[in-house]
Amino acid sequence: MEPERHPMDDLLREDRLPHIWCSGCGIGTAVTCFISALLKSGLDLDKVAVVSGIGCTGRVAGYIKLDSFHTTHGRAIAFATGLKLANPELKVVIFSGDGDLIAIGGNHFIHAARRNIDMTVICVNNFNYGMTGGQVGPTTPVGARTTTSPYGCFEHPFNIPYLAAASGAVYVARWTMLHVRRLERSIGEALAKRGFSLVEVIAPCPTNYGRRQRRRTGLDSLKYYHQKGVIKHGANPRDVDIDLDGEIIEGVFVDIEKPTFSDFCQEGLSRAMGNRGP
Amino acid sequence: MSRRGALSGEFFMMGDIACAEGAISAGCRFFAGYPITPATEVAERMSRRMPEVGGTYIQMEDELASMAAVLGASWGGVKAMTATSGPGFSLMMENLGLGIMTETPCVLVNVQRAGPSTGLPTLAGQGDMMQARWGTHGLYEIIALAPSSPQELFDLTIRAFNLSEKYRLPVLVMTDAEVGHMTEKVVIPPPEEIELYPRRLATVPPEEYLPFKPDEDLVPPMVNFGQGYRIHATGLTHDERGYPDTADDSAQWPLIQRLIDKIRLNKHDIIQLEEDGLEDAEVVVCSYGIAARTALWPMELARKEGIKVGLLRLITVWPFPEERVRELAGKVKAFVVPELNWGQIALEVERCAAGRAEVILVPHPGGGVHKPERVLEAIRKAARR
User: Fold this and answer.
1) A with B: how many residue pairs have Cβ under 8 Å apart?
2) Tens of pLDDT along B264-289?
């Protein structure tokens, strides 16, 4: 008898499984939603590229059976910018974590959004540096205990949707990984969008973050998301900060049309150069 | 002159411009950079020329991003380049390592200025030669070329692209502010006379393809993203499938050995030297770039004094021409090494001479070029041994 195959097996590098993620981690669910959205997208999968940075979420590129690149820490978006501009046929997806994209890669994040490069960024936010053992990060809520904020975090965190919207993203959504159907739909919408789209995925990291905030298991975090998640489509991104124990506002916050970098290039060059171009 | 494609003909051209035109003649169709003196003219020229030849120019937010974008473009199937100077070169070290590890063909031009730190932005230096060799962390071999004229900046930029495709790694063009800002005659041959090394694309179907399984010359054939091979590449230590293998040193051994050997065992193909008067030389001036050029006049003066002095000009600096220097060390009294730093390539010459010939460094902190009398004095001193 043929062994049963999971419907997503074709898009996973089975020979690399099992993955490195801990029990209760939210990254796997984000990957499932992504693959599911991809399968429904109608995209030519030979033309989809996944680019990751470094960290737990940075490992996503290595498990997905598509053209995929695992870059240096923080540089996924910069690498992806070159890849997309060199081959505009590609649908380029950046799949990485909050530390990678928003701290060490923060500058590339805001500039790619500003330029409106046609790419989809899926940012898994687990509020800490998981791979290195749970250090404070750019999204850690004030007061949260981590291995490098033993007395509580003293820094204001980035509100990622607000940062993306202010920088020029044309699509901005946030979901916890409890809300899988909505998350999958948002990833699908982001993939269909021309321009810089961002989906923030709030995910548990029970091993390194959750247990230090008295949410020891993945299930504790899911219960927390269930209790505190509030769906507000169209909410002003400036109002969606995440506190240590407060509400998590979710939804699609931005969905606008705007010329991309390549649109401007094409228009501007044909205007400026007339028939001088190739 | 056609405004559409690569140029050809004779031009009175600045070195930085010749570099950009060399890239275009080599088929470069992607440039990502960040403004920095004295390399800015390369970016400016590329911003004007890339659209004319159907390429892409993008000014990134910094040099970290520039180098990353160049790697991305290369995997997108386009020949790609960036140009920078000292401070930017330091930032590019991070993704230079990624380019080496993922065997990504591309070209990185460093129009060197005097450092450290911000140093002398508009004035020449050659202080980044060891950084070129060892600047990114870990173990590797690199290719670095050192042009000493605008013409050579044109020619070597093409060669850099060819070597990068042939050996699959980022190739460094280590020029300097003097050569980059020098304006001279540059002859650009018609495109059909320029030899280009095409990307070594895989010929086997996806199910048989292993992205990091090398050919006999230790270089793996490549595929571009979007070709349907669905490959994975990573900066982690990986096996022939491109999959991370980091539990112990079992993948590290063959990978690092191969990344080093693909350069070391092909040295004969990569190393290019200019030699003059070495047959009966007692003293060898061993130099590169602008420092080799400014040594020509004092060498001529020394010859008039009856000193048998020859030139060994390193057109390829890395990999270092160890065999040739060793061979000469057995025949000559001394090497004189003028360079715009406090002794970098001189250390390599010393290592290879291994005490069999004296090595006299003519240092310079950068910010100018050697005064002829300093080099002449060193040659005289060498001849008196």
Assistant:
1) 157
2) 999 999 999 999 999 999 999 999 99
Residue A1 lies in a domain: no
What distance in Å separates the CA atoms of residue B366 and residue A60, rounded to the nearest whole number?
47
Task: Go through A52-62 and write b for each residue having 16 or more CB atoms within 10 A of its CB, e for each that does not.
Answer: bbbbbbbbbbb
Residue A269 lies in a domain: yes
pLDDT for the residue B294 = 98
| Beta bridge mates, B244 | B238
The minimum CA-CA distance between A79 and chain B, rounded to whole Å, is 4
Q: Is residue A278 part of a domain?
A: no
| pLDDT tens-digit readout, A159-199 | 999 999 999 999 999 999 999 999 999 999 999 999 999 99
Domain extent, residue A156, equals 10-273
Amino acid A5: pLDDT = 87
Q: Which residues of chain B does A273 touch, with a Cβ-Cβ cutoff of 8 Å?
A: 51-52
In a domain, A5, yes or no: no
**What span, in angstroms and rounded, lies between the C-alpha atoms of B58 and A85?**
9
Q: What is the pLDDT of residues B197-231, one digit of tens each?
A: 999 999 999 999 999 999 999 999 999 999 999 99
CATH number of the domain within which A42 lies? 3.40.50.970
Query: In sequence order, what DSSP letters do the residues of B18-34 get, joined into one string?
Result: HHHHHHHHTT--EEEE-
Quick: pLDDT tens for A198-235. Answer: 999 999 999 999 999 999 999 999 999 999 999 999 99
Say how far apart CA A56 and CA A45 lie, in whole Å: 24
For domain B275-383, the CATH class is: alpha beta
A265 vs B: CB within 8 A: yes
Measure Cα distances from B76 to A45, A84, B221, B265, B358 in Å.
Answer: 15, 7, 15, 29, 49
Q: How far apart are CA B43 and CA B178, in angstroms?
A: 17
CATH code linked to domain B9-193 = 3.40.50.970
The 10s digit of each residue's pLDDT in B284-320 is 999 999 999 999 999 999 999 999 999 999 999 999 9
Q: Which residue from B60, B132, B87 is spatially nearest to B339, judged by alpha carbons?
A: B132
Task: Name B143's bridge partners.
Answer: B171
One fold for B9-193 and B275-383 = yes
CA A272 to chain centre: 37
Compute the distance between CA of residue A254 and CA of residue B233 in angstroms, rounded to an integer. 33
Report the domain count for chain A: 1
| Minimal Cβ distance to B226: which of A47, A68, A276 | A47
Is the pLDDT at B2 greater than 50? The verdict is no
Q: Within the 79-118 window of chain A, which residues sit less than 8 Å (CB to CB) from chain B? A: 79-87, 89-90, 107-108, 111
Partner residue opposite A278 with nearest CB, options B53, B98, B102: B53
Q: Which DSSP helix (H) or strand (E) runs through A53?
A: none
CA–CA dist B100, B94 (Å, integer): 10
**Residue ranges covered by each domain of chain B:** 9-193, 275-383
- CB atoms B65 and A108 under 8 Å: yes
**Model confidence pLDDT, tens digit, residues B22-46:** 999 999 999 999 999 999 999 999 9
Q: How many CB atoms lie within 10 A of CB B171?
A: 28
If phi over 0 gives left and psi between -120 and 50 gives alpha, with beta otherwise, what is residue B114? beta
Query: A220: which DSSP letter?
Result: H
> Positive or negative, the Cα torsion across A273, A276, B4, B7?
negative
